[in-house]
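Internal ticket - ligand job 449, 5-phosphoarabinonic acid:
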Amino acid sequence: MLSLKTQQAMPFITEEELENLLPFMATAHKQLESGTGPGAEYSGWYHVPEINAEEELKRIETVAARLRESSDIFLVLGIGGSYLGARAVIEACNHHFTTLLNKSQRGAPLVLFAGHQLSEDYLAELCDILADYDVSLNVVSKSGTTTETAIAFRILRSFMEKKYSPEELKQRIVVTTDANKGALRSYANEAGVDSFVVPDDIGGRYSVLSAVGLLPIAVAGINIRDLLDGATWAYEKYLKFDPAEVNDCVRYTQTRHILAQRGYLLEMMVNYEPSMTMFTEWWKQLFGESEGKNGRGLFPAGANFTTDLHSLGQYIQEGRRILFETSILFKTSQRELKVPQQEDNSDQLNYLAGMSLHEVNQTAAVGTSLAHVRGGVPNISLEVSKRSPASIGALIYFFEKACALSGYLDAINPFDQPGVEAYKKNMFALLGKPGFENLRAKLVEELNR
Ligand code: PA5
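stdout (C-alpha cells):
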C-alpha cells in the first residue's frame, strides 16, 4: 500500500549517519512501544486495533446513518486536531466538486467546517446559506473551551434552536468531547443530545482515527472500516523495530532527522493531487505541534504540484538551500482521461496523444524531483497504491508513528503543545476575560509604549 523511496535523499546524507543513528532509533522505538517516553499517557492512538471498541464503531455508524439521512448540510465545528483529520480524509476521498453535486449524487450531506477561525464574514455567510437546508452539526472539542469553536457553537446553536423544535434538535446536534468534564459535556448531558468521547489518552492531532474524525468521515459517506483497515495495515507493517531490516516508517524518521542535522530545516510535503491539500494541513499540524519545541523541530510546509511549481518552484530550485521535500505519489488515478489526438495539432501536443493525464502527472513528478535534487533539494517520496480510504488510513498511521518517534529522537514530548497557550492568554486578556486583568494591564502598557 505504501512504499518509501529515499534514494534521492542519499546524495545529501551518508549510510554511515543512518547506521549511527540506529541505536537512538531503537531507544525511541522502545520508549514508544513500551509507553515509557515523555507524554506516554497520550499514546492511546498507537495500538490502532484498540482505539475503538466494536460497539463504539457501530454507534458511530448508526448515528452517522441517521445524520446522513436527515441532513443536507452537516457542520463540523472544531479547530486543530478537532477538525483537520476529518477534513483531510473527507477531501482526500471525496469527489473534487462535491459542493456542486446534489445530495442524491453525493449520497451524503455536504460536510462544511466552522469554528476553525474567527471570521465574522465566514460565519455570517454560512448562516445565510443554512437557512434553506436541513442542517445537523457535530461540535468537537476535547477541552470544550476552545474560543474559536465555542463561539461558532454558540452562534450556530442559537441558529439551530430557532430553526428546529427541541425534540428535533436532539437528533441534529452531536457533541464529541471529554468523557466527564468540560462545558460541552455538561451541555450534552443537559440537552440530551448524542455524544462521543475524545479518549483521555489521545491528544487532538492524533485523534482522527477515534470518534473525533470517524463520525464526520462516516457522515460524509466514507467507509470508516476501510480507513481503519488501512491504518491497521500500517500498524502491523511498522510494528517491529529490526535494525537489520529497517522498516519504512523508521527509515523516514531517520532520514529527515539526519537532514535536519545537516541544516535542512524545512520539510515540504509535496502532493500532485489537489484533494490532498488538507491532508498536508493535517500533517503540518501533526509535526508542527509535536516537534516545534525547545528551539528545535523541522518547519513543516506544504506545496501542491504542479500548481506551486509556478509560484514556489523558482525558490525551491534556486533559493536558500534549507529545505527538503517529502512527496506523496499515487501509483494510479481513480479515473482515466487521455490526451486526445487533434488534427491541426495547433497546440503541439500530439506527442502526448493517447497518454493518460496521470502518466503526464507522474512524469512531471519524476522530472521535478530530478531537477530539485540537482538544485540541492533532498527528496523523499512515498509511493501510495491508490487514493482510497485504506491508503489514507495507512498514511495517517505512518506519519503519526514517525512523528512520535521523531519527537523521542529529539528528546522532547511529542504529545503536548505548551506554546499554543501564549496567544490564547493574550487574546483572553485583551478581550477582557475575567481572571486575566493583570496580563491585560501589562499588554495594554506594552501596546502604548
Ligand atoms: O492537537 C491538539 O491537541 C490541538 O490542536 C487541539 O486539537 C486544538 O487546540 C483544539 O482543542 P480542543 O479539542 O480542546 O478544542
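Auto-summary: The chain has 17 helices and ten strands. The mean pLDDT is 96.
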